[in-house]
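Notebook entry, structure prediction.
Reason for the run: the old model in the group folder had no record of what sequence produced it. Starting over properly, with the input documented here first.
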Amino acid sequence: MTSHDDTTGRQPEPYDLIGVGIGPFNLSLAALADRADTVGALFLDARPEFRWHPGMLVDGARMQVPFLADLVSLVDPTNPWSFLNYLREQQRLFPFYFSERFQLPRREYEHYCRWAADRLPNCRFDSPVDAVHWDADRRQYRVHAAGRTYPARNLVLGVGTEPARPAAFTALRDHPAVLHSADYLTLRQKLDRARDITVVGSGQSGAEVFLDLLRRHAGDGTRVRWLTRTRALAPMEYSKLGLEQFTPDYTRYFHGLPEPVRDALVPAQWQLHKAASAETLAEIHDHLYERTVGRPIDAEPVEILPGTAVTETAPGPGGGIELHCRHADSGRRHSVRTDAVVLATGYRAVRPALLDPIAELIDWDEQGRYRVDLDHRVATRPELTGGLYVQNAELHTHGVGTPDLGLGAHRAAVILNAVAGKTLHPLPHRTAWTTFAPEPATAPVLPRPQEGNERAAAGR
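New structure, fully documented this time:
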């Protein structure tokens, strides 16, 4: 077989799959593919090394999923790229055992992923993918990265999501005192001189940023404000049966729903994937309670305003910021003057520019989104016969479990099995106690008239 990196001038043998982007999801696929001798895989990333949300590695922040939601364990717990094997190599098994915490510190999860990414031979960093072309004659992709061209039969996009900025903040697009939570730790020093800071967004990132600012500015007179559109700071759904909506069973159920139903369901399920953890909300309350011992509640310069939407923004006089707000229940409008804003407003999937050369070969839906089947393969025109798969770009087709790390290994195994054309990793048929929809009703089989007469005669 010709080498994938043949330098003799011969046409190199194509990879079975090339993954673009090395985040946790493609890293999971890389870890599972590492043990699949029959699948040649390569993963490319533009960054010099693995990084995972570096702007939100706040001290004390923990994962919202158990440690078994690592790169491989929920598919193959014997895999050497498991979190437990990472602990073994780090000589931390006993400390982890005595910590008695199912959820990892976020910093440790990021370190675990870097440990795997640094050692997996199929991962290459400093390799930005510029463009992808389809070679119809050879029936393979041509992936152009860092001055080289790699052939591949299948492509897996794991390019991640981008910080989302609400339209109301368009006027402050380049304002130096407005930053997204994705850059919070990196740019936090820009907030040091602000005496009034507003956090926008009710999810886990918003709660963690608000708590961190409370701790950093305790007693220095800085006003810290938290604005959320949600009517209440309700915690994330974390009941055991409620979490079954993060199972492959629910994914299959969701995928089978009509598109309008799916589009209406996702925003209605915000408490499953966009709320803050009950633990973080409790820490905020405990911190404020202790700060006000012997003092009235309103003695502290702290504001929490749920049910409040920012409708318009503008630079204020003297470098400040004006937020025009509307209260959902009362309809009352008011303005907020602040020195700085942290937008904890989530992330959104975007179409990567590297797909431009093959964009016309992709079968987009009416809203310009991927059409994705249960194997996470994107629908394409008949002339594009190579598999195009996506990770964390199918929220509209696969539901709230799409960005959840707990389903990462399962999705990677589904894709790997599809690429291999056989079952490399057996996957469970049933993963939830919940039946998400009744079985279709079937009409009873009635005997034909002559059969009824014959049976009646036989019975006499």
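Summary: Residues 451-460 have pLDDT under 50 and may be disordered.
The old model has been moved to the deprecated folder.
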